[in-house]
Known about the structure:
- The complex is a heterodimer of chains A (203) and B (311).
- Chain A has 203 residues and is mainly α.
- Chain A has 9 helices and no strands.
- Chain A starts with 6 loop residues before the first helix and ends with a helix.
- In chain B, strands 1, 4, 5, 8, 9, 10, 12 and 13 form an 8-stranded mixed β-sheet that branches.
- The N and C termini of chain B lie far apart (44 Å).
- The interface between A and B is medium-sized, with 18 and 25 residues.
Amino acid sequence: MAFTPTPRQLTAIKSIAFILALVPFFALAYLVAADKLVEPLQYITRNTGSWTLYFLCITLAVTPLRRLSGWNWLLKLRRMMGLYAFFYALLHFTTFLWFDHFFDVQEMLKDVAKRPFITVGFTAFVLLVPLAATSTNAMVRRLGGKRWQALHKLVYVIAPLGILHFWWMRAGKHDFNKPILFGVIVLALLGMRAWWARRKVLT
Amino acid sequence: MLILPSEITPREIFESRRKFIKLAAAGAILGPELALAQSQGGGLAKLAAKRNPAFAVMEKQTAYKDATTYNNFYEFGTDKSDPAENAHTLRTRPWTVQIEGEVKKPMTLDIDSLLKLAPLEERIYRHRCVEGWSMVVPWIGYSFSELIKKVEPTGNAKYVEFVTLADHQQMPGVRSRVLDWPYVEGLRIDEANHPLALLTVGMYGEVLPNQNGAPVRMVLPWKYGFKSAKSIVKIRFVRDMPRTSWNKSAPNEYGFFSNVNPDVDHPRWSQASERRIGEDGFFTKKRKTLMFNGYPEVASLYTGMDLKKYY
């Protein structure tokens, strides 16, 4: 019999998840405030980028985990994880606009158009915006379940774009260990879905 | 106070002295002057050198701590904190540099002979990394042209190749496949002869720390940092352009010349500006990168060359 938390336990689990997901943010804030970083701007940029990918993977892992474990309540954590992915992506984008271009939007857009790895990252971020904007219960109702789900399948495009962005960023230094790891994880998470979808069609 | 290179204290004795000094300091025998002197460098063996004002930029020097804990030296790992953490395994004595190829007098010099080959100078250079950050570092060494004079290149010597140590027992990063080891860099012979090209044995008044390329490296302030080979074991004078490590690894990103040039972007980022480590922060725009990193005296080396093509 799969574990099913009581409503109170679920609230506790959610609270813990909420706080844990903020740890990277506060850790970063501490490192900056305590002046522990030699090149803080670059560190913040990379760190927030990494955490965006981590949270995208966590969000994508909810459905397979739920299916494999029978823990249906995991679904109740998915929105929060997705919103955290957006939160770190927003920080990541802000660092780019701030540190790289000092809020010069025109210059920023030129950079987006000129450099493929930024084009890809920026696209992924822009695609995340409607997902974050339609994450409330009210929006789900307004769109209707089917359309809402169709819209949120965008994440299947966003995650691979995020990995491509990371891959190209590392391309010059041939340092692919981490991009490969992320790639394999996302491929596995999306592959499981494809496999299950196929089986459903066949049976 | 002038100390000859030959008088440099062996590390063991030096360290035991430091232990004594620390104990003494703990006992409050020594005054605050000592603490002040130590904050300049890292407590390594001192190296006497006269500052050469012709080669000293008047900009704020980067803190020793930043210059020695934040750098690239892939033989010790790819993170910028890796060299400082891992380079303690590097043995810099005994050390020899083999000089060979198109020269009338090929020779093998040990580090002591290298230190005595010409008078040591302190030069304060800007240092610009291809990644977009920069520092200002007081180096100690002498013009590489001094060494060129000694070995008498033949007319066939068109390029100089620097081969650096690649010993996986001393250098954990060499086990990785990030680059094709050993790390090789190169210069055209006229570039190598330019007085700015510094054969470097020290920084901040002391011998080089391991993580910064001890015991001997090049410093080429008008080029991106990776052109300055560290922990050199072989210098070859050759006819053909050397196949340098980063150029082999990603030719569209890292050219043979790799002169600092704000007008030629790296494919993935602009080179028009840079962040000075320890200075440029959150509330200022990045500073503009200067052509040849602010060393216009090298421009004549490249007269008539399309620097967008030969990046």
